[in-house]
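Fold it.
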Amino acid sequence: MKILVIHGPNLNMLGSRQVSVYGDQTLAEIDSLLENAASELGVELEIFQSNHEGALIDFVQARAPEATGIIINPGALTHYGLSLRDALAATSLPVIEVHLSNIYAREEFRQQSVIAPIARGQISGLGWRGYIAALEIVAALEA
């Protein structure tokens, strides 16, 4: 079982960007926590981050055929990334959308997700733990 983990724009800045909103864990630390949890669950992860929507789409299109599920934090693309949404929907894989912060308790423009309607579920506001919960959920869906 292979699960894709996709991090969108600006997530490479975690640990130094708005720590009060996103926490102090770096992306590398979150990825390490995910890899440890995946090992315990007996699943393989392929992790990718880009600040470019096209690169995220290329990754989805290239890797989805070998995957059983997708965990994605689309970053700001959450609110307007329609081509990313279409690429995710085209995979027919279960998608779990993750947000470190509670997007519904933030600015109005952040409260709308174009990804949510094609996702199996969304986890918002649990910090890095949301990624672990998403991993457990996707692994259980495919078990």
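The chain has a mean pLDDT of 92.
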